[in-house]
Amino acid sequence: MTxxxxxxxGIRHHGPGSARSLRAALAEFRPDTxxxxxxxxxxxxxxxxxxxGMAPPVALLAYVPGEPARAAFxxxxxxxxxxxxxxxxxxHDVPVRFCDLPSSTVLAARDHEPAEHRDPLxxxxxxxxxxxxxxxxxxxxxxxxxxGAFEAITEAMRALREPAPPGDGSTExxxxxxxxxxxxxxxxxxxxxPAPADATTAPGTDTAVRGGxxxxxxxxxxxxxxxxxxxxxxxxxxxxxxxAAAPAGETEPRVLRSIPVDAETLRREAYMRQIMRxxxxxxxxxxxxxxxxxxxxxxxxxxxxxxxxxxxLTGLPKVKTATTxxxxxxxxxxxxxxxxxxxxxxxxxxxxxxxxxxxVVRWLTRVAGVLRANDLPVSSAHVIEAARLAETLAAxxxxxxxxLSEVTEAVRAVMCGGDExxxxxxxxxxxxxxxxxxVPEDTPTVPLAADLTATARSLRLKQExxxxxxxxxxxxxxxxxxxxLLHRLRVLGIEWGAPAQSQVRxxxxxxxxxxxxxxxxxxxxxxxxxxxxxxxxxAAEARILDHxxxxxxxxxxxxxxxxxxxxxxxxxxxDGLIARLGAVAALDHDVTHxxxxxxxxxRTRRYGDVRGTDVSALGRVADGLxxxxxxxxxxxxTGLDTExxxxxxxxxxxxxxxxxxxxxxxxxxxxxxxxVADRDDVHGALAGRAVRLLADVGEIDDAESALRxxxxxxxxxxxxxxxxxxxxxxxxxxxxxxxxxxxLRLVDEWVRGLGDEQFTETLPLxxxxxxxxxxxxxxxxxxxxxxxARAESASAAIxxxxxxxxxxxxxxxLATAEPPAGAAQPAGAFV
Length: 831
Description:
alpha/beta, 4-stranded parallel β-sheet, 4-stranded antiparallel β-sheet
């Protein structure tokens, strides 16, 4: 019988060098079964890897159906070694399975605090003379793929996992098997020792987790940074960028310190070994295991008896979960996004993996394209010089190929002229980059997600990771349906589209502008929203009705919800919302609350003209509110301070503007305003505004307006009260003074008659009133005031006696003046 052969490939997740090395190693090994670190209950999804429409970056999503907020993601990029292993299996018809703890166990663990761990990658980098672990890994692995590097990587991790010798001050791993060799004991751990109940995954997991502190599997190569490394030292004189590494001979070699293995890692590795045993029992003869390098020593070599691993896994909690594939983005792989075990340069890594010929020159060409797109003068000469500089830096640092640090320094010096703003631009657009993956249409998902996909496709809305502006003309059927879709998503808490200011001139109620940007997390938000219904329309209707059923809902919230329902065309929810609005309004006796919602209701009723929505029931509610407002307004305007009066004035303005669009009940409203205008105990800001609104519609003529203004400025009122009345009457209406000279004269006389103290007191309010006028209006008022002053001066009586004195003095001066010698005496000269 042929002896089965097992090879363990310790990789770094999201590493292009590891991915390329793994492809070469698998082609050489020719496995008949492949095990990959990942949730074991996601095996049914492996078949979709080779399906049409599957394009990385993507992620495995596991969630609890009853609690979608409890979820975890396992992301994969094109340059992820695990993805390449999945692709190899699909292309060569080799069975592929996941071998890590199932998501049902991962999501059952809750409220765990992550344990603290040292970073194995940092330990290896420090031993090699680097103080930047990321750059060290990039220098020794990513820039030079080698299919034979996996043994070195495993040995490096084995050295880090070995318990420290007694007395060296390091933390020794507890629970080592007494009779086992140190390397095997530290790799497998003491399977007989019970795992602490609060043990958690090492930090830096390559799994994004949501909800309840659920523990996610360490899909990363190492704790801390999520990366593993081989231990080759750099060539003499090599270094990273700047201070990243010291030249050989200047840094004292550092002894590797042991890193203890936490209990959660031991459980995961025990589960992986159990899956390996099962694969061998099922007949695997050439078994390939792809895992994070930190786990490789625990899986390499003889597996040993299964009983200790079984005891370690006994009693693990479980919860029912569902799994699926969802699109992912490069930005979510970046550390800057808050993604725990991310990588700092996914765009660069993708470039390294896909561009095998002249990657540096091709990268610099892309950089030049970005700079040119931003109107910066970059020529082919810049690309050539930058490539030379990057290669020179790599040679000085004894690197086989210029890495990101060398390329970035060359770009900064040659193309950007030292401008860090341009360097950051390149980092955002290229180094991190943005790419949204795709999954096949038949990928298992909730019905709501399928409805969203089908609706978006029919409306030609593409899910894109970069923001773009969408202008909609609601008079067009397809664009109206787009508006309905985006509003329904907002009701469900899926912010794919956000309202924006339109750049189109002459916009009206038939136009909307949105900013669209798809985030990977929206896939989970869709799953969360699926509890409300199986289609976007029914789910949004159920969600909005549930929202307004709250006993503490306010009239303003109800009006906003009704407006949203009409915008989203949620016809089945409209009747319920209107009924709820009427019930709440009947119990609310505050006129300011009723005034606050009336303009919105009247505007909402107008949407039926553009959107074809039946809003007849809404009109009845608005009419009922107007009757109650008109009855209660005269009593609501008394006893208000300045701040409250100005707030109520704004509400009155909004209601008046809405009613003037042709709503019924305008006569009732004007009658209520006249009552306010006739009262003496009303704040001037309200009384003056009531007179002004009545004058605008011809209910009060110019003569009566002037009469009321004169009464407001009469003796007996304080200067501040007079200024408030003028502010209420004139606020925002400078043309009134331009064309009505009698009103202007009254205001001018009042201002000129103010004493110094009164003028100082009223000046701030007057400046606010007149400062709100348009500049042409202010100039016209100033010209009218100056013209009146000149006319008044011209109409004054002439004092003949004083004029005669002045004329006599002038004649005397001229008569005594002697002409120059020889000058001819002019005819008619004074003598």
